[in-house]
Amino acid sequence: MQPVAPRPPHTLFRPQQGFFVGEIDLHFDGDRLLFTMPNGRTWQIWEIRVDGAGLRHVSPEDPDVHDFDACYLPDGRIIFASTACFTAVPCWHGREQACSLYLMNADGTGIRQLCFDQDLDLHPAVLPTGQVIYSRWDYTGIMHVYLRPLMVMNPDGTGQRAVYGSNSYYSNSLFFPRGIPSAPGKIVAILSGYHGVNRMGELVVLDISRGWHEAKGIIHRIGHRGQPTVPIVRDDLASATWPKFLHPYPRSEKYFLAAVWPEKAASWGIYLVDVFDNFVPLVVDPQYDFFEPILFRKTPKPPIIPDRVDLFRDDAVVYLHNLYAGPGLTGVPQGAVKKLRMSGYHYGYPGMAGPDKIGRAGPWEVMRVLGTVPVYEDGSAAFRVPACVPITIQPLDSEGKALALMRSWYTAMPGDVATCAGCHEEPRDTPAARRDIAALRGPVDLQPWYGPPRGFSFEREVQPVLDKYCIGCQNGQPQEDGRVLPDLRAPGQVPNYEGVPLSDLGAARLHPQLRARTDIFPLHKPNHHLLGDRKIRYTPAYDVLSPLIRRVNVEDYVGLHVPAEYHADTSELVQMLRKGHHGVVLDAEAWDRLVTWIDLNGPCYGTWGEVAPIPDAADGAGASWR
What we know:
The chain is mainly β. It contains 9 helices and 29 strands. The strands form 8 sheets. Strands 1-2-3-4 form a 4-stranded antiparallel beta sheet, with no helix packed on it. A 4-stranded antiparallel beta sheet has the order 5-6-7-8, with no helix packed on it. Strands 9-10-11-12 form a 4-stranded antiparallel beta sheet, with no helix packed on it.
């Protein structure tokens, strides 16, 4: 193959203000384009015909909301990313806004939020099946630099599930995923790291029928033919690799258009590349960088998947066929799981997010206890859950203690009926043909946990246990032998409580409104380079007891834990009480409250507003159309 003869470029559209134009998506009819362009204050979605006429503003304009990264759906609607959720990036302590995926009609009406996720949902694209693939960033108790699984869902938001990279150190990120035409289960994407170069990296072809974890499904690394794919655990995974790629556009399972940066001294150009490591330059000019190649042609529309949502409902149904299928509960005897505990994540706001706010060293987010449901002797369960709530599920033993921790979440759409074959089953797994007890009995409602659903607050849920059993001795008063025991009294009873130091980053990244509140975040003179110049007040008892529980904290192993790795019985606090601590005998509810606190990763606060007033009233903010 020879390089294409250069042709004079044709400018389709050039904004007068010199604004960026990108994130281009061509309609299946090949006659119009969606793209992202700012309006001077926020990013917005626009459309233009391929002859340069008919420019129109698609997304509804809101002065505080960014809309971007849109793609056409086969039925004429549009999926796009937006900051209308008013959540924030946790690892940036709320200084950067997060985004979720939304659905709207072609004229910008009928907007509905599809994803309710912790951080960034990026790069939605329609697969040949009609489903939508996208990148989701997860780190609820997992090392945040390694986990960005590829997700798929139906265009109406139902059926959200991971198809590659769940519980995987490698690769850290898979950006710009696209399905390959006439190649079911094959995906092209950019393999990259976390820190280092932005979203660029190696061009890889995945086959999820071969595997969905680490490097098991990677069948090609363009430019590295014949070299083994080694799943390297490294934060900055892509800076040292050459050539670098962006914006893959598959022609077939062997040939791809892509933006390529061949070497450091070169410019970005548009190339035709293949799995045999041929690189054919199509558009290259040392004075310019070129990105986002697309073919101006009609393409077959993927099948239209009918909507399954019922927007008149506020719940969904989940059928779990066999909890013991899949690797999540390997080695756990059949019948050991008696209930499932449902909890919902409440993510932080712009200016109020990140570690060390809800609790010391975790959890990242507010943990809302929703309730429990029974698991039948065959491992099945069927239950109703609130729609549009990111839910984490914990299997409980006969003592109500979690045998495994789901450090992720599932979100169901209104009226959805979701099914799971097992616990962490592979994407290709399907339920075994059998008459499940849960299917015969039908879905049940969540059994409340000592009241309505609410955020777990140490002061509300655990402090009453301490008041009943502990503060008779552990009240900060000198003992007969002169010792002063730890003070487990409520905050109002402990004078001069100052709290504990924030990390250097946690203090430096506090919103200015929060840094000014020295009554909430007292000044601190750090005696270590990792500590900051502010403290945070939890409660005296929380400060005493949280070091005595064993939990995942903020950052932990990315892979799938061995069942019962963090069972409450491995905590020093539980072991001390079980041995008989000065004759203290807890009742069942007291044990349940302590165990639930441990299983939820030891939160202190049950709402973000309990930490401090939300800066800029972001908890009441939202797009006019949200």
